Amino acid sequence: MTVLFALLATAQATEPTDRASSQAHVVHLHGVRLGYAYVNTPEADLKVAEASGLEVNPNYALIGYELNQRIDGGSWLNLLFVQNVMLAGMNQSMVRPQLNTLVGFDVETLAELGVGVNWNPLDPHGRPIHLVTAVGATPLVGHMNVPIHVTWIPDLEDYWRFGVTLGVNWGEG
Predict the structure, then answer these.
(1) Which of 19, 21, 52, 88 makes an SS bond possible with 96, Cβ 3.0 to 4.6 Å?
(2) Given pLDDT bands bounded at 50, 70 and 90, which one contains residue 82?
(3) pTM to 2 decimals?
(4) Which among 123, 73, 129, 78 is positioned nearest to 103, based on CA atoms?
(5) Residue at 3 is within a domain
(6) SS3 169
(7) What are phi and psi of 90, to 5 degrees?
(8) Strand 25-39 versus strand 161-171 pairing type
(9) Helix-then-strand count for the chain, H and E
């Protein structure tokens, strides 16, 4: 029993020292995104648009640029911070900018899950701030990452948005 207490005391004494001496490694990446978004337009908004002679197409092409920082956890779980700007609608001769910032987790530097804030200055209901959630995979291909992400942006008045993007990241890691 005395040996067990001595081993536990030794383990407790060395654990804080090991953790205190380890430094978090931050990996900075950036890259481009191409994708597709579906915008669910409520029936009332469709009727208003139709009455004014506008055609509403819910399918948008996406193009964007992203920055992300990964804090390596030293094991299988890492912390992610993601910032991106997306331009939607160029397939319809319009530009609808959006900014996203997310915090999330990276599992084995492959699967990713994040949640954050979406800013859409052209929101038709005058509420430019929304929740954004994302899930995806980021396989390593050579010296670059190839992220494939699915995003969902909910809304109170059924003006939700769904998107899929494919991209290329490069940088330090």
Answers:
(1) 88
(2) very high
(3) 0.80
(4) 78
(5) no
(6) strand
(7) -65, -20
(8) antiparallel
(9) 2, 10
